[in-house]
Specification:
The chain is mostly helical. Helices cover 69% and strands 0% of the residues. It contains 10 helices and no strands. The two termini are 32 Å apart.
């Protein structure tokens, strides 16, 4: 029963993630507050109900003549994905503190990824506060301590910092910050399978772009791969792979 309830709740949260991502993109572009309630193109103030509908499309003033901008991840993707993730988290952790912590981390990571897809930036206003909270998350998480979190963050910082130096075209400092945040939340050594999974997911995306006719110089938002790897490990996917490989 809890799984179904969390799945429904997760669907509603997915819509909220879509609206929040659009609001954050808009606030950066127009330098308004995080909930500026303005048209994403012409800046005309919009009613709150229009912003709620922004969960399904980029908010626009009815008479706006500005060209369309990228709409980011559509709600018909975020709603079922978030619902499924919340349902899986309920099945893995059951009712309790771990479920609440996992749900909060999932929401933070999804917002970061949705913003990156929409404007190709990993926002400091999301990663820096997340890094500050990371050690507290580790302290509350059963079986993990603050030391584990700090070592995980340091490992991710070193690995992704080296990758950015070696492959500047494909990754940026925002990806380094996000990887560090993930390391702080997952801790050592769980951050390693998360980063490995992210590399595999990123490789699959790059291969799909090539198969679709894209160039080897094509770039894409890398944060969804990092987020996918982090959530995969958070929900115990790495342990499942080890179990399958050992049979």
């Amino acid at each position: 029963m809890l799984d179904w309830l969390l799945t429904v709740l997760g669907g509603a949260v997915g819509l909220a993630v879509r609206v929040a991502a659009t609001a954050l993109v808009l606030s950066r572009q127009r330098r308004t507050g995080p909930l500026g309630w303005r048209c994403g193109a012409c800046g005309v103030r919009l009613p709150f109900t229009t912003w709620v509908r922004a969960g399904w499309c980029r908010p626009r003033h009815p008479d706006c003549l500005a060209a369309e901008e990228p709409a980011g991840v559509p709600a018909w993707v975020l709603v079922p994905v978030t619902g499924a993730l919340f349902g899986l988290a309920a099945g893995v952790f059951g009712a309790g503190l771990q479920l609440a912590l996992a749900g909060g981390l999932i929401v933070l990571l999804l917002v970061i990824a949705a913003v990156d897809v929409q404007c190709r930036l990993v926002l400091d206003r999301l990663t820096y506060p997340g890094m500050v909270v990371g050690p507290l998350f580790a302290w509350l998480w059963p079986g993990m301590g603050v030391g584990d979190a700090l070592w995980g963050g340091l490992a991710a910082l070193v690995i992704f910092g080296a990758l950015v130096l070696l492959y500047r075209r494909g990754m940026g400092l925002g990806d380094v910050k996000l990887a560090t945040l993930i390391g702080l939340y997952l801790g050592w050594p769980q951050v390693l399978p998360a980063l490995l999974t992210a590399f595999l997911l990123g490789g699959l995306v790059g291969m799909a772009i090539l198969l679709a006719g894209g160039s080897r110089r094509s770039t894409f938002a890398y944060s969804p791969a990092l987020v996918g790897g982090a959530i995969f490990v958070l929900l115990g996917g790495d342990a499942l792979l080890v179990s399958v490989a050992g049979r």
